[in-house]
Amino acid sequence: MKTMLLAACVVALLVAAGPAQAAGDAAAGKAKSEQCAVCHGDHGEGVEAPPIAGKAEAELLQAMMEYKSGKRQDAAMKEVMSKLSDQDLADLAAHYAAMK
Ligand code: HEC
C-alpha cells in the first residue's frame, strides 16, 4: 500500500512539474512578439515571411531552435533568434500556436 501511495505521489509530481517547466507562456510570448510582426505580420499571417499563426506549438518551437542553432539557414531568422533565450522561444511558440 505504501508503494502505491508513493507511486501516486511521484506521478502527481511529474504531471505537475513536467508541462509547467517546458511549456511556453502565451501571454509572455505576446509581449515578445512585436519584433516578429515586421516580417510575420501583426497576427502572424505572414508579410515578408511565411505565416506562423495557428501552427503546432512543437513545430514552431523546433523551427525556431533550428534557426538559432544554424541547422536551418536564414540570415534574418538567425539574427532574431540569436537574441532570444530558449524560454523566449517557448513563449513565442505558445503565443503563435494559440493564434488563428
Ligand atoms: C527580418 C524578418 C523576420 C523577423 C523579424 C522574424 N522572422 Fe521568422 N522568418 C523570416 C523568414 C524570411 C522566414 C523563412 C525563412 C526560410 O525560408 O527558412 C522565417 C521563418 C520563421 C519560422 C518558420 C516558419 C515555417 O513555416 O517553417 C518561424 C516559426 C518564425 N520565423 C518565427 C519567428 C518569430 C517567433 C519571430 C520573432 C521573435 C520572427 N520569426 C521574426 C523572417 C523574419
> What would you report as the Rg, rounded to the nearest angstrom?
17 Å
How many domains?
Answer: 1
Strand content: under 5%
Terminal residue distance: 48 Å
Largest sheet: none
Helix content: 55-70%
Unreliable sequence segments:
none
CATH topology type: Cytochrome Bc1 Complex, Chain D, domain 2
Q: What small-molecule ligands were found?
A: heme C
Number of helices: 6
What would the keywords be for this entry?
100 residues; 0% strand; Cytochrome Bc1 Complex, Chain D, domain 2; binds heme C
Give an account of the 3D structure.
This protein is an all-alpha fold. It has one domain (25-98): Cytochrome Bc1 Complex, Chain D, domain 2, CATH 1.10.760.10. Helix content is 68%, strand content 0%. It is built from six helices and no strands. It has helices at residues 2-22, 26-32, 34-40, 57-69, 75-81, 86-98. The protein starts with a helix and ends with a helix. The model has no long low-confidence stretch (mean pLDDT 87). Residues 35-36, 38-40, 48-50, 52, 60, 63-64, 72, 74, 76-77, 80, 92 line the site of heme C.
Describe how the helices and strands are arranged.
Blueprint: H1 2-22, H2 26-32, H3 34-40, H4 57-69, H5 75-81, H6 86-98
Helix pairs in contact: 2-6, 4-5, 4-6
Bound molecules: heme C.
